[in-house]
Amino acid sequence: MSSTENECVDVVIVGAGHAGCEAALACARLNMKTIMFTVSMDSVALMPCNPNVGGTSKGHLVRELDALGGEMGKNIDKAYIQSKMLNVSKGPAVHSLRAQADKQDYTREMRKVLENTYNLTLRQGEIVDILTENNKITGVKTYTGTIYNCKAVVLATGTYLKARCICGDVSKNTGPNGLSAANYLTDALKRLGIEMYRFKTGTPARIDKRSIDFSKMEEQFGDEKLVPFSFTNKPEDIAKEQVSCWLTYTNEETHKIIRDNIHRSPLYSGNIKGVGPRYCPSIEDKVVRFADKDRHQVFIEPEGNYTNEMYIGGMSSSLPEDVQFKMYRSVAGLENAKIVRNAYAIEYDCINALQLKPSLEFKKIEGLFSAGQFNGSSGYEEAAAQGLIAGINAAMKISGREPLILDRSQAYIGVLIDDLVTKETHEPYRMMTSRAEYRLLLRQDNADLRLTKIGHEIGLIDDERYNKLLEKEKAINEEIERLNNTFVGASSNIQEFCKKNNTTELKKSCSLAELIRRPELSYELISEIDKDRKELDSDVIEQVNINIKYDGYIKRQMSQVEQYKKMENKKIPEDIDYEKVGSLRLEAKQKLTAIRPQSIGQASRISGVSPADISVLLVYLSMKH
Ligand SMILES: Cc1cc2nc3c(=O)[nH]c(=O)nc-3n(C[C@H](O)[C@H](O)[C@H](O)COP(=O)(O)OP(=O)(O)OC[C@H]3O[C@@H](n4cnc5c(N)ncnc54)[C@H](O)[C@@H]3O)c2cc1C
Fold first, then answer.
1. Helix 447-458 vs helix 463-484: angle between axes, to the nearest 10 degrees?
2. In this predicted model, what pLDDT tens digit does every residue of 369-420 receive, in sequence order?
3. Is 416 inside any structural domain?
4. 130-173 confidence digits (pLDDT tens)
5. Cα gap 252→68, rounded to integer Å
6. 3-state secondary structure string across 49-104
7. What is the number of other CB atoms lying within 10 angstroms of the CB of residue 2?
């Protein structure tokens, strides 16, 4: 029995996780009539794993998402319980914001926004089929047989497709936290010719805080000087009392318990088939792969203000329950641990993302987009970033506008998506600063200056915010200009100032900018000898400092970007027949035909396509035009 829902919508979002939420909000805010499905309303913006947002490179993604008009940054500013800027002892390119979240608050705040967004409907229901005509989306079908007609679909099914949770030799076909899995969509996608992968990830146990001896651990405090994730918030807007996290370590006894029971680990017994994230290994993986290490860090993180559950970061596992008790209780401070939830691994179906265009639309099915863990990535932030782009591009497609494709020189989001749709990944993909070749330009502190204009052009950033951005930009440029053109001479008070700040005395006059460039000095420090300066916002001062201090490196990276852009702008015709490109190597022909890159730049990043192949292609294209 099936019935047609007589209501036709513009976009259907399949999934209310971190990707689905951003996609749905982007579509609705771009005036698309949008309906978002989820297997369970209790999985809306659920954080089934680590209770934090951000961290190295992930913080960059969240700030970029916020600069474009996404929601995650604002949401974590409401629901955070500890905030910390990581890597401050290193250069600004790797400074990364991370905030501990109250998981319930995070979900509640996101639901409040979703349930009060015009054009957006939330619906609990499992999507079991994707409907198409001539390889073009027409609608979706629910488990209850209802059909929803639509012009575009965004798949953001996360870790739910044919999900299986494993703990030792026990497994259950459920989604995270015991929520029901989605067991029909995989087959429907295979019928459409979509290639599926089986991936896996894992989570640690949750332990009752009353059973933990914190006196044996190092307390980890949040920062006093707050930096909001959202550029719409000032530090004073989000100030609140923060909670602590705690640091302890595994030890030889822990490692022995794991080694003695490794044969019972589903990872090593073959009970787990899915491929796990290399850069987020389970504790048993760490003990096996890094056997020389005598201890591993364990971060004890509160799951929220509302509960005594503590997240045991660094010890995700799928070892049997009895081993888990021994393993956790061998750690300093956890000797009397009461486990509230077992650690477990989860296997789920996702796609080979090489089937997607850089717009996150499927090459084979027009109007079908996808985002998040379903695309082979791992992490709330990676999911949310893709969700925003997929949502924007579904709306762009319906309104006949060009898709938003951010390239590797514009944003970490550009690096993330380009890596997924160009470079084969056979394990969950996690973002890292080392993946971004232009990371000195892609800092978390300047995401608004890089992307907010684009967000405004698209229609997700309103005029008020846009004008504020222009004012900030103007203030930064004017101040840098002033510092470059304000000179001080070798007068006695300047020499005194130099002596006091342990920097070389002046031999001749120099600009204030040159002084700021000195490692011992900064914009703040030279205020003493800079009489004409005006009161500026801290985020303007931050930009002035960084742009002056790293001027040389920034200029060098910008010239590298110019080279990169030249290759990116060399477009490859969609209908090219690589069989006709005579002296291309067979492997290159196969890879180029399968991936169909949009530019020479993208082609050059495909594994198996050599620089020689690129030269052959360039000659071929130049002869064609
Ligand atoms: C046990 C576990 C451990 C993890 N460990 C880590 C880790 O260590 N590091 C890390 O970075 N990330 C980890 N993650 C991943 C992290 O949770 C995800 O990256 C993130 O939640 C992905 O967001 P998403 O929006 O893609 O999908 P999800 O948050 O999984 O949301 C998917 C949504 O889709 C809905 N859905 C699915 N199928 C259907 C359907 N057919 N019809 C209707 N609705 C559907 C679900 O109800 C849900 O709302 C872990 C996840 C789990 C479950």
1. 150
2. 999 999 999 999 999 999 999 999 999 999 999 999 999 999 999 999 999 9
3. yes
4. 999 999 999 999 999 999 999 999 999 999 999 999 999 999 99
5. 47
6. CCCEEECCCHHHHHHHHHHHCCCHHHHHHHHEEEEEEECCCCCHHHCEEEEEECHH
7. 10
Determine contact, residues 163/22, Cβ cutoff 8 Å.
no
Is residue 63 in a domain? no
Calculate how far, in angstroms, residue 161's C-alpha sits from the geometric centre of ligand 1: 10
Check whether residue 192 and residue 44 sit in a common domain. yes
Query: Which is it for strands 80-86 and 196-203: parallel, antiparallel or unpaired?
Result: unpaired
Question: Which amino acid type is present at position 100?
Answer: Q
Q: Which of ligand 1's atoms lies nearest the C-alpha of 20?
A: 25
Whole-model pTM?
0.96
Mean pLDDT of 88-106: 96
283: helix, strand or coil: helix
Pocket of ligand 1 (CB under 6 A): 14-20, 37-40, 43, 46, 48-49, 126-127, 156-161, 176, 182, 185, 201-203, 280, 316, 346, 372-374, 378-380, 383, 430
With beta carbons less than 8 A apart as the criterion, state whether 382 and 416 touch.
Answer: yes
Shared domain for 513 and 416, answered yes or no, is no
Amino acid at 212: I
Closest Cα to atom 10, ligand 1: which residue? 379
CATH of the domain at 361: 3.50.50.60
Closest residue by CA, ligand 1 atom 33: 15
Instruction: Kindly state whether residue 61 falls inside one of the protein's structural domains.
Output: no
* Cβ within 8 Å of residue 52, ≥6 positions away: 98, 99, 100, 101, 301
pLDDT digits (tens, 9 = 90+) for 255-301: 999 999 999 999 988 889 888 888 889 999 999 999 999 999 999 99
